[in-house]
Specification:
The structure is a single chain. Helix content is 35%, strand content 28%. By secondary structure, it is α/β, with parallel strands linked by helices. It has two domains: 69 residues, Arc Repressor Mutant, subunit A; 190 residues, 3-Layer(aba) Sandwich (Rossmann fold). The strands form four sheets. Strands 6-5-9-10-11-12 form a six-stranded mixed sheet, with helices on both faces. Strands 1-2 form a two-stranded antiparallel ribbon. The protein has a two-stranded antiparallel sheet with strand order 3-4. The mean pLDDT is 91.
Length: 269
């Protein structure tokens, strides 16, 4: 069936956005729309220009017989800063204050549009890195991990603190919590992560970094490599961070429990 250019542009745009970072041969589009490769290339140029102008991302061309095109999602800097500023305003609400200086984030992490926006930002930050899988620890980091993995087009692995029969055999380690200094356990199914994988760690909240350091130690058991670490909220305190190389979107500076005041601003992004 022959497609008009307007129809091709809409359908190609939709296909690219649903398959981020996936190499698509030009012959796929050429055969689908019964069009010459030269026409497809012109269409892709239009889509690429529009994506870049709108801050949606870019379309990368891979030359050669085994080449094609890839859609690389990005987050435009101005809109990202505006989003983070709005997020800080939400998090500064006194009603979010929990014992121990933590923030209530469940409602934010339950909003699909917000979670998708955060995932897009993380994917944009780490877009140039080689990443095979996104890792997080159960449970609140799971939505962020899946949103990020969706834009990176990679699978998600979930570290757990208790054993599940459905996980099969597992690898477990003991680690010291950075904030409470208690010894805790985390585990990961042997089947969930291939040896030597390049891993992006995503977490919702980091205080001293004990949990993330535990995940790093767990990855060593798989001979895996940490490609990057993304944190939604990091808490600033007197304790030295156990993790140094990470990107945070929001920084929790101080909490006044008596006055019910929360001071947050942009993280190190």
């Amino acid at each position: 069936m022959k497609f008009r250019r307007s129809s091709r542009l809409v359908d190609m745009t939709n296909h690219l956005r649903e398959h981020p970072r996936q190499l698509i041969p030009l012959t796929y589009f050429s055969d689908k729309y019964d069009s010459a490769k030269s026409s497809i290339s012109e269409d892709l140029t239009i889509i690429k220009q529009t994506f870049e102008e709108q801050g949606i991302g870019t379309v990368m061309t891979v030359p050669g017989a085994a080449g094609g095109v890839k859609y690389i999602p990005t987050a435009e800097e101005k809109s990202t800063n505006e989003f983070i500023a709005a997020l800080c305003d939400k998090m500064a609400s006194p009603n979010r204050l929990l014992p121990g200086g933590y923030l209530y984030l469940t409602d934010i992490l339950g909003q699909p549009q917000t979670v998708q926006a955060i995932g897009r930002i993380f994917a944009s930050i780490f877009a140039k890195l080689e990443i095979d899988v996104v890792m997080t620890v159960a449970t609140k980091g799971i939505p962020l991990a899946y949103a990020t993995a969706n834009y990176l087009n990679v699978p998600v692995v979930i570290v757990r603190r208790d054993t599940h029969v459905t996980e099969g055999s597992t690898v477990s380690i003991n680690y010291v919590s950075g904030s409470s200094k208690r010894i805790q356990t985390m585990m990961l199914s042997k089947r969930s992560l291939a040896e030597g994988s390049r891993v992006l760690i995503i977490d919702d909240f980091m205080k001293a970094g004990g949990t993330i350091q535990g995940m790093i130690s767990l990855l060593e058991e798989f001979n895996a490599v940490v490609s990057g670490i993304g944190v939604l909220v990091e808490a600033e305190g007197t304790e030295e961070k156990l993790v140094q190389q990470y990107v945070s979107l929001v920084r929790l500076h101080s909490v006044n429990i008596k006055e019910k005041q929360i001071h947050v601003d942009k993280g190190n992004y």
